[in-house]
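Form 7-S
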Amino acid sequence: MEPTDDPVFDRRLVLPDHPVGWIVLSYAGDPLVAPRRPIVRVLRGTDGTPLDFILPGASHGSAHWLGLISSDAREIRLSAGAGFVLERVGARREVSVLAQCLLRRPWRFVSALYERLRGSERRYRDILRGACAVTPLRHYGSWAASRNRPIRLAPTDLRVRCLILARSGEEAALAATLDALDAQSHQARTIGVAWDDAIPVSPDPRAEHRRWDVRATPAALIAESDALCLLRPGDIPAPDALALLAPALAEADLAYGDAIGPDDQPQLKPDWSPDLALATGYVGRAALFSHTLLSRLPATPVGPMAEAILAIETAAIVAGARGAHVPRVLARTMSECLDPPARAQALDTRLKMLGAPINASLRNGVIHLDWPLPQPAPKASIVIPSRDRLDLIERVCRGVLHETAYPDLELIIVDNGSTDPAVLAHYENLRRDPRVRILIDPQPFNFAAMVNAGVAAATGAVVVLLNNDVAVLEPSWLDAMVRQASRPEVGAVGAKLLYADGTLQHAGVVVGLGGRAGHILRRRPGDTPGHLGRLHVAHEVSAVTAACLAVARDKYRAVGGFDAEAFPVDFNDVDFCLRLGAAGWKTVWTPAATLAHLESVSRGPSVGAKRARFEQEAARFSERWRDVIRHDPYYHPALSLTTFGEDLE
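Output:
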């Protein structure tokens, strides 16, 4: 590699024989250095048109990327950040890639050949990458073994107290945990074992042993140490677990890593996601809580030992703690202290003790959090851009006006030049309803401008953007979205959208997916739980689709609404959510609002002028949000951006 004068793509890949075709890059990186993912830029053609590829993050110390370099490539550049080391560049014959695809995914082999014959390099490339460069999550063990590298860390003097929460009969498992603590590169200052019942006659001398005190406060558990690590007998922290967590705690209240769970499956966690943590307890063990955090939590008793971890996590989240994520498996964890019913009850009790306005309950085996609806319920303005298509506009209006159980709403249709007499007649009928207003926008199609016009006419405290091809499935959808949008810390709120066949259309947007931004787990079964069970609960995401998006009207105005100049048709919703995030408001996706997004299932790809316009907007989006594209904080850097599932790359 050699330097360039580009401040972003600051390195040029120079090869003895310039590759045309499939190449493999093998590289090392520091998983603790953000942004997590390198980007390769290929300059193509005589004018040097850029084509960017987002590479896998080296979350385990090293990574590999399989890519196709087109025949018109002039130059290959790289934006990688500190800690990146290119170790090898290999070439692969096209026939070997096709053969691998045939063995792994025969139907994709057929699709790849079809796209090659029709001249679609992009689809051909993505199909083969999805078949050959992606590993299912269930094969994590072998995948990780080929990528794990030790990490060099500067020593720290953080004084860590490890407290193991034990019950009688767990002596053998406790010994295994103590063995793992003995092997730590960063030794714990003190190790204690808290017994829920009688202390064994001959306790292990490597730790202090006491009966659990239900009156203990969070501050009492940490004593004079700088950080507290809570474990269960049988938990096996990796040798460098404390060494990796300690520096991460320098700028956070708590630090946590990934884990292998009791089911032997990986738990690849997002960066700090407090809503998800509250509902699922994903922080778990292999975590450090700082003395500063624990000392400022309410001095209320932690209570029964089985509730200790939940009590501290819940109090930390309610107190607005800052979390830091180390994207590396740092422990193998054993059984949980609480089963789901007990956890739901304990969580609800804790929230009430802390004065949090949230109710927790167990429904269908999943913990649900119900945020309050302000009283009186704020007026909701539903904005629907539309043109012709009586079948669509009639259905969505019926759903909003007659199938939605919400006490105060208005409907604003922004019509972009409908000429269908049946649609115009339908508008006349709608105007008889005092809740309905119809704006006529005869300008050339600009979706973002239509949305802005609708919001400008809205009188509700909450505005809901809704596509005309969405159908209401349940009466409580709007109530669920307004509850989230009314939270002071929340900006945009997205819904769970299903195709007509019941598969997932929208479960949140991952920035970087597909190269720019995409819908996670698209076309999976509608009841797909998602990794860590996140699709069963409301949680933070980087962005949601404007097909169904709620936001407080004052927050919409605060960031200037949709950018109708840069993104008239595509990426305007993702850009809007990211600008809300930059202003301090997070985006939340909730499965409590489930609707059907019917028309989009049959749409074909953009071609010709539409494709050119899409690529122009995509390029603007990439330039504006490159840092987020390189690391969506709610999507683990080891997960693939090539496929729309939760696979490894």
